[in-house]
């Protein structure tokens, strides 16, 4: 049985949608038990007694709020996210799911669970919808700013390993996000990263912003500053299109009738672009699966985040990342030796 | 009479849409004459003789194609874009419009027309639609990668001046694109740029990717690498939403009927997100108006680009940019002197 630690209080809407999502997950999957970290008085009222054989409540009252600084998280040892992370560190849980303060989750996971050997900086990966029957994994979408070429190289290795072992893609193709497809395009950091990433199999070279939504490649690598901006831009465009249409709709009864007839199309579109369908964003590069969920997660999003953590926990992702990074860095050293000998 | 030089051969679809756009512009505006640079044999067949009192053909046959390197542009002195730029340099034209090789246009404009005093790097600005009755000017969207804090500061000054003098906004608000709103957010370069831009009036601080489409501010400043990615991301999201819906539509006659009833809404949306409505992208920071149009420009886009160049040519944009940059740099120096005296 896989054991999932859940920060049951961290989301924007309190414990209700999180517990509801957890119960949905339990109903649909028999292979795990949960450690729900939060206020016992509150949680025990939300969890029907029939589920108590699958959910253990870990009682604690402090919650890191969205307004707190991520740096405070390390000192607040009684907080739900601190305790959830500690359960993994102590081997009492196999993975963590949190819809709480993402900066706090990231710092605690990195410092308390620790980085995989060879990883300089963990990265947050997220799935983006495409017009085809597939999604694109983009990383980093916000864990790091000012990533250097080596960081981007590690993101490429971690993203490819995740696509292979957790998303079960056969030979995931990796692209490097740039301002043009040609090898000559890019800024100083991506040009250097291009050379490093060329060492890994199935590297497609540079890709552009629109390639993410075309599904040109399976994994897109970028710096977290750029990744955050592209994520927010994508959200902004989708919201704006919907707003412009709604405004216009209100002006015409004919158009409203049309929208009613088209409701299935709109519903399918919503499903396709709804982050709740994708669960949460894995923090790649730490020694155990950590899933960072949206603060506004509904029960479906939490359910999917739990399923995602189960897939990760039953894979050998961390091993594969460690081995591949070791292999590539050995190659680099032996290349250096060859060069040295030649000289 | 304002004189506009037009690279009549540079677009992806040859001279037809460009001459058609030029004629549309002439029909709607009596205040300019055009210098159409291109193959006289071809152009004279496309231009009805009744328009020859407003259009002078400057005969030359060489065209820089999209596959040529921007660096070649400087050597090919008989090319349409080289000659169009030279017309401005020699004072025979007041502004340039080109749908040709944007890299070539940029290099030639920067090197042959020259930068405004105080500008380190010219930047490309573009208008993005919002859900409100306004647009957002974003710069730089591709002229520069690895911009430093001083470059971003100059983009802020140039963008604000353009919004004021050409877009006729009263007190344009400027935002700095970052990965969060708080002053503490950003990468090394944007954090330093934040301090510099704080010196100009109506600076709203950091803005995020979605703010561009909400219309939170009038001018958004970013590095060209990031600007290119956000532009392509926005295009990609809009295309993907349309593709997903079209695919779904095909499966249901009811939905198709709905789409027919909604066609006005879709048409309005298309107008709102169609770049042809916005004309071209001004290259800010050179001594004369240079409008870079999309290679795939249709006649409407060319017409609007010409109108845009007319607005710029009849403004005192270049003067204002020079004066403001001089004022801010004087302030900086006097601040330094004060500090030195205090010490």
How do the helices and strands line up, and which of them pair or pack?
Two copies of one chain form a homodimer.
Chain A: E1 2-7, H1 15-28, E2 32-38, H2 40-46, E3 55-59, H3 80-89, E4 95-98, H4 102-113, E5 123-129, E6 135-139, H5 149-165, E7 174-177, H6 188-197, E8 203-207, H7 211-214, E9 219-221, H8 224-249, H9 253-261, H10 263-273, E10 281-284, E11 290-292, H11 299-313, H12 317-342
Parallel strand pairs in A: 1-2, 1-4, 2-3, 4-11, 6-9, 7-8, 7-9
Antiparallel strand pairs in A: 5-6, 5-10, 10-11
Describe this structure in words.
2 copies of one chain form a homodimer. With 343 residues, chain A is of the alpha/beta class. Chain A is 47% helix and 15% strand. Chain A has 12 helices and 11 strands. In chain A, strands 3-2-1-4-11-10-5-6-9-7-8 form an 11-stranded mixed sheet, sandwiched between helices. In chain A, β10 and β11 form a beta hairpin. In chain A, α1 crosses α11, α3 runs parallel beside α4 and α5 crosses α6. The C terminus of chain A is likely disordered. Chains A, B: Pathway: Lipid metabolism; phospholipid metabolism. Chains A, B: It catalyses: a fatty acyl-[ACP] + phosphate = an acyl phosphate + holo-[ACP]. Chains A, B: One of its GO terms (cellular component) is cytoplasm.
Helix content of chain A: 40-55%
Beta fraction of the residues of chain A? 15-25%
Largest sheet of chain A: 11 strands, mixed
* Spatial separation of the terminal alpha carbons of chain A: 56 Å
| Oligomeric state of shown chains | homodimer
Order of strands, widest sheet of chain A: 3-2-1-4-11-10-5-6-9-7-8
Number of strands of chain A: 11
Considering residues with a beta carbon less than 8 A from a beta carbon on another chain, report the largest interface and each chain's count: A-B, 63 and 63 residues
**Overall average pLDDT of chain A:** 91
Low-confidence stretches of chain A: 338-343
Structural class of chain A: alpha/beta
Mind telling me the C-alpha Rg of chain A? 21 Å
Number of helices of chain A: 12
Q: Give the H and E element order of chain A.
A: EHEHEHEHEEHEHEHEHHHEEHH
Approximate shape of chain A: globular
Pathway (chains A, B): Lipid metabolism; phospholipid metabolism
Family (chains A, B): Belongs to the PlsX family.
Subunit structure (chains A, B): Homodimer. Probably interacts with PlsY.
Catalytic activity (chains A, B): a fatty acyl-[ACP] + phosphate = an acyl phosphate + holo-[ACP]
């Amino acid at each position: 049985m896989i054991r999932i630690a859940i920060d049951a209080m961290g989301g924007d809407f309190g414990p209700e949608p999180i517990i509801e999502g957890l119960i949905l997950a339990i109903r649909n999957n028999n292979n795990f038990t949960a450690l729900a970290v939060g206020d016992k008085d509150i949680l025990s009222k939300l969890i029907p007694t029939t589920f108590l054989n699958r959910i253990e409540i870990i009682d604690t009252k402090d919650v890191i709020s969205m307004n707190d600084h991520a740096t405070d998280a390390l000192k607040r040892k009684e907080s739900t996210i601190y305790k959830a992370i500690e359960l993994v560190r102590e081997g009492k849980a196999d993975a963590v799911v949190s819809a709480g303060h993402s900066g706090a989750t990231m710092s605690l996971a990195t410092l308390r669970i620790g980085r995989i050997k060879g990883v300089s900086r963990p990265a947050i990966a997220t799935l983006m919808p495409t017009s085809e029957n597939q999604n694109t994994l983009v990383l980093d979408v916000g864990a790091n700013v000012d990533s250097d070429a080596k960081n981007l190289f590690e993101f490429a290795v971690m993203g490819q390993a995740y696509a292979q072992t957790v998303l079960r893609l056969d030979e995931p193709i990796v692209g490097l996000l740039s301002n043009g497809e040609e090898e000559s395009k890019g800024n100083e950091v991506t040009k250097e990263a291009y050379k490093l990433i060329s060492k890994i199999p199935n590297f497609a070279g540079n890709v552009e912003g629109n390639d993410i939504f075309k599904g040109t490649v399976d994994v897109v690598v970028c710096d977290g500053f750029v990744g955050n901006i592209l994520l927010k831009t994508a959200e902004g465009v989708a919201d704006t299109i919907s707003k412009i249409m709604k405004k216009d709709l209100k002006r015409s009864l004919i158009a409203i009738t049309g929208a009613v007839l088209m409701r299935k199309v709109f519903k399918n579109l919503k499903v396709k672009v709804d982050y709740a369908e994708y669960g949460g964003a894995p923090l790649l590069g730490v020694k155990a699966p950590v899933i960072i969920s949206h603060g506004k997660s509904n029960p479906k999003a939490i359910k999917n985040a739990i399923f995602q953590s189960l897939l990760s926990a039953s894979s050998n992702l961390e091993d594969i990342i460690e081995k591949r990074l070791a292999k590539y860095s050995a190659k680099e050293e032996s290349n250096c030796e060859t060069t040295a000998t030649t000289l």
